[in-house]
Predict the 3D structure of the following.
Amino acid sequence: MKILFISPRYEGGIGGHAFRVAEKLREVGFDVKLMHVPHVPIKNLKNPSFVIFGIIKAIFDREKYDVVHAWNVPSAFVMKFINAKKKVLSVHGIYSEQIDALHSTATSSMVSTAESKVLKFADVLTTDSKSVQKTYKEKLNLDFVYLPAPLDAKKFDQIPDVKKIENQIAYVGRDSFEKGTDILRNIEPQIKGKIIYCTNMSWIEAMKNLKASSVLVVPSRMESLPQSIKEAFFLKIPVIATSVGDIPEVIKNNETGILVSPNDPQSLLDVINSLLENKEKASKMAEHAYEFIIKNFTWEKLISKYVDFYKNLS
């Protein structure tokens, strides 16, 4: 089976997931090609330039594919011009809500109006989030296939042993409004520890810093399910996160982690300081979280779902 993946980038959240899926599919015999598209590296021009350059590249791509798989809504515009028997689009959040949080009301209104039309460019829609699946069904009556994003446990062999740093708090992800980094920065002076922000660094460096930490904090205002939570679970680093998106699907409060309400700086501060002092509780939660991730989210557990998904498209 010949598959083309399209993504604005192949790192970070959904782009990094796309790259990992391509790797695993190749390992089991699929022919997967990644389309690389240039873009203008300016915030408000990144997606529009990706779409324009991507469409041009797609028009001149004479290859025929069994499946073209677009990752995130901007990629759908490029996917439309690819010659493929089946077209798949994956989203890891409610796109119009993400735009609403980051851009003007006018921009948000235009995106919301166009959203349902763009999603219908695809023959099949997928998401890694049950909450996204449910919301799109209620909002637009669209059916999404739920494909959870697995953790590649073998990649952690690249992470060396590190010295634990007492009361270090890690943040892993984009430095942006929807991720709540401003909330974390505002309470930072009152936290009884030091925060390390793993934003613009390689995955290996981010994991080394996470492994050296006492806790991972996820202060997001909106989410699907951050890969950083699964990574912390595997590294046995306790997690404090907001109860948004699919986070409550994996964090059982005070069992595999601690949940706090979004946009509640005082509660977040209190929970961080309390957990830093309660080492026994932190250790027990980390052990439970590790057991949960091994049982539910490794590639060994989920690869068959992906193989069956692509085979059933043909």
